[in-house]
Amino acid sequence: MFRSPLLFLLKGCLPGLLALGLAAPASAGSFNTTDVQAHGNWHSLALTLGDERHVRALEQHSYSDSVFSVNATPGACDRPWLELRVELDDVQAQSATVNRVPADLMVDEGQVQQGQADFVTERGNSGFYVRFTLPDTAALLDDVRDGDTLRLRIHRAAEDYWFMVFSLDDADAALARMQRLCRAD
To answer: Does the structure show a pLDDT above 90 at 117?
Structure first.
């Protein structure tokens, strides 16, 4: 298990990025987890906070400080979102979108899905979040279900990238259960 290369880079540049004033509200809060089930390197679970409910399939095996997740909300199960969380070890003082950069996601040696990554911190949370927006998330998730490896390339600057690789062993089972949990509501 590796530590994410993002952690070292983020700790050095996060204060400067926050100072840029790109603040935006984020949904900080601690959710209750239920219905947790392991699927090899992946897990599926439900998250609740009051009346708010989400479901998640996640991979936390590849890195000791990073979790890649696919998330959905009952009533909008066909619009999942992708997120990467990197543990910063320090609780953040403010919620902010600190940067928006291009990102490429690829399963195995397949088609590269080009999109955008928002770098987000949440007040009272020790995580740094990368929220991905892709033109065809459904196509990427189809590849994830049948693939072995997910590769991320996050553009920090021209010719300056962060690379991460996540196992897709049993992702299909976790994603299928996530959808069942989502539609059960």
So the answer is: yes
